[in-house]
Each structure stands twice: as structure tokens, then as C-alpha cells.
Amino acid sequence: MAMSCIRLVVLLCLVVPATVASPRKLRKSPTEIAALDAAAPPPAGASGPTTFFEVDRPLRPPPGSSGPCSTLLLSASFAFTFTKPPATAAYSPPACLAAAGGGASAISLAVLEWRATCKGVQYDRIFGVWLDNAELLRGSTAEPLPDGVVWSVSKDVTRHASLLAAGGNSTLAVFVENLVNGGLTGVYHANVTLHLYFHTSPPAMPPPAVGPADLIVPMSRGLPLNDGLWYKIQNASDATSATVTLPPNTYRAVVEVFVSFHGDDEFWWTNSPGADASGPFREVTVRVDGVLAGAAWPFPVIFTGGINPRLWQPITGIGSFNLPTYDVELTPLLGKMLDGKAHEVAFAVTNAVDVWYVDANLHLWLDPGSAATAAGLVSYVAPELVANATSAQTTASRQVLAIGWVKSSYGNITTNVTQTFSFDNTKAGETVNQTTVAHAGVAATGDDGVVYYSVQTQQSFPLLWDSEENQVTVTRGLEETTVAAGRWSSGPPYRSLRTTQQSSVAGETWGIRQTYTYEATDGCYFRNVTSSGYSIVSDQSSEVCAKGTPAGAAGR
User: Fold this and answer.
1) Is 13 exposed, middle or buried (0-12, 13-18, 19+ CB in 10 A)?
2) For 496-525, how does the pLDDT look when each residue is reduced to its tens digit (9 = 90+)?
3) What is the CA radius of gyration of the chain?
4) Of 458, 360, 365, which is closest to residue 418 (Cα–Cα)?
5) In terms of Cα–Cα distance, which of 363, 443, 449 is closest to 411?
6) Beta-carbon contacts of residue 100 (< 8 Å; ≥ 6 apart)
7) What is the rounded CA–CA span in Å between residue 76 and residue 174?
8) What is the H or E stretch that residue 32 is in?
9) In the prediction, which pLDDT does 552 show?
10) Which among 429, 450, 478 has a CA at the least distance from the CA of 322?
11) With 0-12 CB in 10 A as exposed, 13-18 as middle and 19+ as buried, what is 374?
């Protein structure tokens, strides 16, 4: 489908000054950072940079893939970047993609690699990577050491294959929000590389609705500008929006939301219900023409300089180098949107304090067998947010249920979408105990009762922060289980991730331990790593699936 079939107009609802640093007590000043570095024993062999890393599973291409074909997309340095434009580079599909068949369906795995280094005194900084104004990666930089730090991120961007394979000239943009002055000396040097793997035999057509989208529409501020492309939300009354006119043959739509929190709201989860007017609860809402389509209840990412930088050296916090994204299914609402008119997709943050960075990508699946689809809404239930607060505890819950049908060349398919959330935060003195639980379900069924695809995902984000006079301990985790089924289902029917991290600082000593267990019907990964100071003292990993698990039962 040619790009002329879609019209996107971004409406910028607010412009705020770039935030330099959080004033909250959970941030060290440049002087304090320098003092920490001077007091701590230097890393072993400190003549060069120290490697920091986020624990994650290695990305493996499907069996029978060729590659990788690696292309350096951009190399740049980021010193004083406030009020300056992003670094940019022209992008066109690598020649190896044309040799492999040219289209998005030739790609079996696409990996975007960020590799960077920095030396001196500097805060961690937020960065983003966009292709044709669509965000591909958002992360925090490592907070550097006097002799330097190096780190890398590898993100699976296969779902963006249609962007990567699109013909014509595109623009890659990278922005690192950095400040250099008399006290902050660190300059970030970064390389962005794309690694492509290909099917070795002519690929079958990907299953409808569950492969990469046919068209990705960016919902960001777009180039040119002197900032990152994300929208900035200052408070609970702010909302930002984009207008979009859908191609008439759209049969599925999903919003991929990028979100991060900074400035006065970087540590939103530490707020006291009574003392802080905004409290400790946050959610990102997505509305279509004012109607709530869904929400994202954010994972409490702690950046690499948060609370105390030693808590995240050399094993950085969960989700800090590669921030999580959140999907909101719009398919049941296509009956409202397939009328050839422009529709508003709006984003807001409940209880927000300055400042949240939010943008999104709209993933659209287009029917190759018809010029236009038809759609209608069957049922919609979205009660108001339920939130309660006492002097020490905050709870919240929400439910969204939407059912709609779409008639295309694939038949008349009804999509049932559910989201349920619960939140519990208890604060006693300098101790915070918080858990967020989220369930998202999508089930598409034909008139004959055949389930075409069904995906059910359950997530839990436990967090315990305990601060005493001379010791800080943070224990947190990410638990996620996904079960997929249906005639069009692709990928593993079952996958589960359980990772738990405990970081502790007492005086001038610190240590981190993290366990990471990923189990899926197409493979497994386990890692148990412990550090003391800057040194790794124990590191065990395996890609063997344990017997008795759903993955092990599949014969892996």
C-alpha cells in the first residue's frame, strides 16, 4: 500500500524546556558523583573503560536463517545537545536485503544494536532512535566512571520489518539528551548498527494479523526539531495527540507505546499518598476520539544513576538500557475509524508531574484481497479507574473490554480485547513495597467458531525499596507469561520470563545479584550472575530447557 493512502498530521499540544536533572533527593549531584568515584576502589584493570550490562537473553535467528548482514547506520558523539537537533543519517534498505528477496517477508530476524562509551563525570541520559519518525529504541545511557564505561544494547526490531524494507530514502535520527559544563564532562560516543538475518528458502507468506505489520505510522513530533522526537507531558492535565486517516483496507490496528519518566517524576513510585498530591500511582492512557482504547501501567524503570549509582554497577537495572514498550489493541474500534475521516489518537499520564516522554507507533495490517474492509463495534465496557489512598497505602484497578468485528477477504472475524490492571503501593518511612499486575488478552474468532489467533499475557512488576541510614537495598522483578494459539498463530505457543534483581549499597561496598529465567517452546535461557563492587564474582548461564517445564516437554 502506497504511503499516499495514509495521511498523518501530528498536533503538538505542549512544549516544555528540556529537564537537566531531577531535584529529588534520590539523585546525586555532580560533586557527589565525583566523590563517590574517588572513594570507591577502582575497577580491576582500570586503565580502560568498564563494561556495564543489562541481563537479557541472547537473540537467536530461527533455524535455517542466513546472516547476519550488518550495516553501520550512524556513528556520532553527543556533548551539549539541549536545544540542538538529533544526529541524523540517510537510510535505505541494505543491499543484502534486496539480494535476499527485497521484501519485509525475507527478514527472519532484525536486531538493532546500540554500542556506546563515555568517560568523566556525567548523569545517565535518556536516548532514542527513530526511523522515519517511528521510534525503534529508547534507553538510558550508563552513568560513566572516570576511566570510562562501555555498554551495548541489542533489540529485536523484526516487528518493524516493513519500515526497514521500505523503498526510497528515509532518515534515521538519534538523540541523547546530554549536558556538558564545568561540572559535567562526559561526552557520549555511540554507534547504531542493524543486523539482518534472512530465510534461506523463499519464505511462506506470514500468517495474517500476527506477522509484522504492513504499515507503521509514527506518532511522534517528527523532524525537523531541536530535541528528541518524543512528546513531553508536564502534568495530569496535559495530553498530546496525533490525527490519522486509516487506509480503507485495514483489518487490524495496534498502538506500540514508548514511555519514560524524568525530572520531578523520575521516582513517582516513592511518593507518599498524603504528602505528595500526585501520589505514587501512574498510568498512560490511549484514547481514540476521546474513547479509552486501553492503558499502559508502566514498569518502574530505575535509570543507571537512580537512588545511588552503585546499585547498578556493573549490572544495570531491569529495563534501563532497553526500556519496555506497551501494546494497546485498537482493532475492535476500527468500526469508528474506517470512515475515511481523520481520527485523533491521544496520550495522557494519570497524576503526571513534570516530565514524561511519550510517543507511539501505529501498526496496521492491510487486506491484500480487498480495496476496503468493513467493521463494527459489538460491545465496549470501560469503567472509570478505581483508586484509593490512605496515609500509607495506594491501590488502583482498571478494566477495559472491547469486542468488534472486521469483514475482509479473510472472512468476518470478531476480535475480543481485554485489559485488567491492579496496583498496590505501601510506604512506611523509607520503605516502599509496590506490585503492579497487568493482563492483556486478544482473541480473534471467525463466524464458524474457528480461533484465528489468541494471545494472553500476564505480567507482574514487584518492587521493594528499603533505605536505612547507611544502607540501601532494592529488590525487584519482572514476571511475564504469554500463551498463544490459533490457526494463524506463529512463534512459540508458550513463553515465560522470570527475572529478579537485588542490589544493595552499604557505605563504600555494594553488590548485585540477578537471576533470569526464560522458557519457551522454541528455546530457553537461564542466567544467575552476582557482582561485588565492579567485579563479577559468579556467572552461570545455560540454554538448556529444564525437564518438566512446558518448554522442556516440547523436546528442546
Assistant:
1) middle
2) 999 999 999 999 899 999 999 999 998 999
3) 23
4) 458
5) 449
6) 66, 69, 106, 107, 196, 198, 199
7) 9
8) helix 30-39
9) 58
10) 478
11) middle
Q: Are 331 and 443 in contact (CB under 8 A)?
A: no
Block residue for cell numbers 556525567: 122
Q: How far is CA 326 from the centre of its chain?
A: 6
Q: Using CA atoms, how far apart are residues 65 and 60, in angstroms rounded to an integer?
A: 10
Terminal C-alpha separation, the chain: 40
Question: What gap in Å lies between CA 249 and CA 409, rounded to an integer?
Answer: 10
- DSSP at 53: B
- Model confidence pTM above 0.90: yes
Element (H, E) at 99: helix 95-99
> Which cell is 427 given?
510506604
Instruction: Retrieve residue 172's grid coordinates.
Output: 534515521
- Measured in degrees and rounded to the nearest 5, phi and psi for residue 303 equal -70, 170
Cell of 474: 532494592
User: Residue 105, Cα to own-chain centre: how many angstroms?
Assistant: 24
Q: Is 361 helix (H, G, I), strand (E, B) or coil?
A: strand
Give the range among 4-8, 96-100, 508-512 with minimum mean pLDDT. 4-8
